[in-house]
């Protein structure tokens, strides 16, 4: 109590005033918002757009409407705000004009940055899709700006506008008042009508490259006083897939997860990724055909928390990297690559052929889809790895053909080779396609019936007795164009050894006569005279085959059992009729052997195709 209080007055415990609170702590802002670019100099990976706008502003060629497109997180809305700020830039002392030099804040910059400027209006087209919303913009565009130089309308996700809204905007968009500018942003540029696109200046914002992204994240970590290793930045940059916002969100999460220290191991555990070095070990085991080691490595990664589909995706990415290093060795200088990828990837690029890498990519791409749809992804992924390791031991088509050519002749083996077991030597197919693999593996299959008259000594070449033998020889030599032309365009008039006389159907290529003469001389080693006759000639082989098919179908339709089936299943059709001999030929043909079944036996493309 104070000295002035009377003695007979009761004492009261007065509340003590609380100390003045300290200044309220600034609320935390996520990195994606804290480091949002404020000027064009802050944008990364969009140099082409910045250069175009700089030249346009310098020359005064400022468009009335802009449309910005790109994937999520590359900075479309941010760029729109910066562009609005550049259009209305005015120094504090006044004067000036539109400028991309925004290093010094102008009169309107702070309000535009904070989205509260009266003359810069943002609209989300996802929630304002109707013609009424656009009508408000049209009505407001008639009035001059209150404070700034231009009245700027920023419409985000413009592709969400209705058809009526787009149509209502067209006239104002094409001939807007001098004081109005439009800036559109969208992730679905193909959904924007062409009539709108033709009235706008379009800029495609590119995905940010992983190396550029990693360098940007490193600068941010330095400003945030966060310890981070290069591997962690590389993982985050690649996981973001070119999106700056995704990269900053992942980095924010990684910093919180690691308590201020970000390591590659922590980021991999956070994202459920496999260790890059272990992915390379798995790839190496697969390329060597070491299945026990590959399965053990996969199981260890899976037990550590890596997703099976992610493991296969990482393998596919490393396959792509090795392929790039083989084609463009300079790509190893990419800042987004870790040391293990750079060194070991270069070594594998030198030791693996392009066909092996292409085969691995095909099988992994197919396997990823299988694993994503499988009830038990781990087991499905292991089967994909088994197929990949098995295919690593198989020869490529050129190697298989070379081994076939190097086989000892049948006379040297002491026992005659069955007819048709080894085809006659031929040139390697263009590009080393699947034909070479079929030829190599057909030698292991049961001997197929000979489709061409039996060959005498190789020097003499095959003996031909008719156009059917010519077609069979062209098929054996893989000349499908000549085979088709002879089957469908040639009517036989006379055939004897060394001389053929044919008539051509209407519309046939007149060069067929010269091509057939030249090819037969090349294939048989003898001169062939092929002449064009004025006679009508016999039906073409295709016509004969068609007549035989129709005759077979007519006969089979008369069968009571077939008639009953067709009547029981309305709409059923007879698509083919084969004799037993043709069925046997089809089963023994090389195109149906294990080379076409593929390593997984699914009848699809083999690794060689």
List its salient traits:
Rossmann fold; Helicase, Ruva Protein, domain 3; Zinc Finger, Delta Prime, domain 3; alpha/beta; 609 residues; 3-stranded mixed β-sheet
Low-confidence stretches: 1-18, 410-459, 588-609
Task: Indicate the overall shape.
Answer: extended
Percent range of helical residues: 40-55%
User: For the record, what is the CATH homologous superfamily label of the largest domain?
Assistant: P-loop containing nucleotide triphosphate hydrolases
CATH fold type of the largest domain: Rossmann fold
Total individual domains: 5
Number of helices: 26
CATH architecture of the largest domain: 3-Layer(aba) Sandwich
Number of strand elements:
10
- The helix-and-strand class reads alpha/beta
Task: Give the assembly state of these chains.
Answer: single chain
Query: Strand percentage, roughly?
Result: 5-15%
Largest sheet: 5 strands, parallel
Question: Overall mean pLDDT score?
Answer: 79
CATH C-level name of the largest domain: Alpha Beta
Structure summary:
With 609 residues, the chain is α/β, with parallel strands linked by helices. The protein contains 26 helices and 10 strands.
Characterize the structure shown.
- The structure is a single chain.
- With 609 residues, the chain is an alpha/beta fold.
- It folds into five domains: 31-204, P-loop containing nucleotide triphosphate hydrolases (Rossmann fold); 210-271, Helicase, Ruva Protein, domain 3; 276-392, Zinc Finger, Delta Prime, domain 3, CATH 1.20.272.10; 467-540, GMP Synthetase, Chain A, domain 3, CATH 3.30.300; 543-597, no CATH class.
- The chain is built from 26 helices and ten strands.
- Strands 2-3-4-1-5 form a five-stranded parallel beta sheet, with helices on one face. Strands 8-9-10 form a three-stranded mixed beta sheet.
């Amino acid at each position: 109590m104070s000295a002035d209080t009377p003695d007979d007055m009761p004492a009261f415990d007065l509340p003590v005033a609380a100390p003045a609170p300290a200044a309220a702590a600034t609320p935390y802002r996520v990195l994606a918002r804290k480091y949002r670019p404020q000027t064009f100099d802050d944008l990364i990976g969009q140099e082409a757009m910045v250069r175009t706008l700089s030249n346009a502003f310098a020359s005064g060629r400022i468009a009335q409407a802009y449309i910005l497109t790109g994937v999520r997180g590359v900075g479309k809305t941010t760029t729109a705000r910066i562009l609005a700020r550049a259009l209305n830039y005015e120094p504090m002392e006044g004067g000036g004009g539109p400028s991309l030099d925004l290093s010094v804040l102008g009169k309107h910059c702070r309000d535009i940055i904070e989205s509260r400027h009266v003359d810069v209006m943002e609209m989300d087209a996802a929630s304002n899709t109707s013609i009424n919303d656009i009508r408000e913009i049209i009505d407001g565009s008639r009035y001059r700006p209150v404070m700034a130089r231009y009245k700027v309308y920023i419409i985000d996700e413009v592709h969400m506008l209705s058809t009526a809204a787009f149509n209502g905007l067209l006239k104002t968009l094409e001939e807007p008042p001098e004081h109005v500018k439009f800036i559109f942003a969208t992730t679905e540029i193909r959904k924007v009508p062409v009539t709108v696109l033709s009235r706008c200046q379009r800029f495609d914002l590119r995905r940010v490259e992983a190396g550029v992204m990693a360098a940007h994240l490193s600068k941010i970590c330095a400003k945030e006083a966060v310890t981070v290793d290069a591997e962690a930045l590389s993982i985050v940059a690649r996981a973001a897939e070119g999106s700056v916002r995704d990269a900053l969100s992942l980095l924010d999460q990684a910093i919180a997860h690691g308590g201020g220290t970000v390591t590659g191991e922590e980021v991999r555990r956070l994202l459920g990724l496999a260790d890059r070095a272990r992915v390379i070990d798995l790839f190496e085991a697969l390329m060597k055909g070491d299945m026990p080691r590959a399965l053990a490595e996969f199981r260890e990664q899976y037990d550590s928390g890596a997703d099976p589909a992610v493991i296969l995706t990482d393998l596919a990415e490393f396959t792509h990297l090795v392929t790039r290093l083989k084609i463009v060795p300079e790509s190893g200088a990419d800042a987004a690559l870790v040391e293990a990828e750079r060194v070991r990837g270069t070594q594998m690029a030198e030791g693996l052929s392009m066909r092996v890498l292409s085969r691995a990519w095909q099988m992994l791409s197919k396997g990823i889809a299988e694993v994503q749809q499988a009830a038990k992804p781990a087991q499905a992924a292991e089967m994909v790895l088994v197929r990949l390791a098995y295919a690593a031991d198989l020869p490529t088509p050129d190697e298989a053909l070379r081994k076939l050519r190097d086989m000892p002749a049948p006379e040297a083996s002491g026992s005659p080779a069955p007819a048709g077991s080894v085809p006659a030597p031929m040139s390697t197919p263009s590009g080393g396609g699947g034909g070479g693999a079929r030829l190599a593996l057909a030698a292991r299959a049961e001997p197929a019936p000979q489709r061409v008259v039996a060959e005498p000594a190789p020097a003499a070449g095959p003996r031909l007795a008719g156009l059917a033998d010519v077609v069979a020889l062209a098929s054996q030599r893989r000349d499908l164009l000549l085979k088709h032309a002879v089957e469908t365009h040639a009517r036989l008039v006379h055939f004897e050894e060394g001389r053929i006389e044919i008539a051509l159907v209407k519309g046939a290529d007149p060069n067929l006569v010269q091509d057939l003469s030249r090819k037969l001389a090349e294939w048989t080693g003898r001169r062939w005279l092929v002449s064009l006759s004025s006679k009508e000639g016999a039906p073409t082989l295709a016509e004969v085959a068609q007549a035989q098919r129709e005759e077979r179908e007519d006969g089979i339709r008369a069968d009571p059992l077939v008639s009953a089936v067709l009547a029981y299943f309305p709409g059923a059709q007879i698509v083919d009729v084969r004799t037993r001999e043709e069925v046997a030929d089809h089963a023994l043909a090389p195109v149906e052997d294990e080379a076409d079944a593929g390593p997984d036996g699914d009848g699809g493309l083999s690794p060689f195709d």
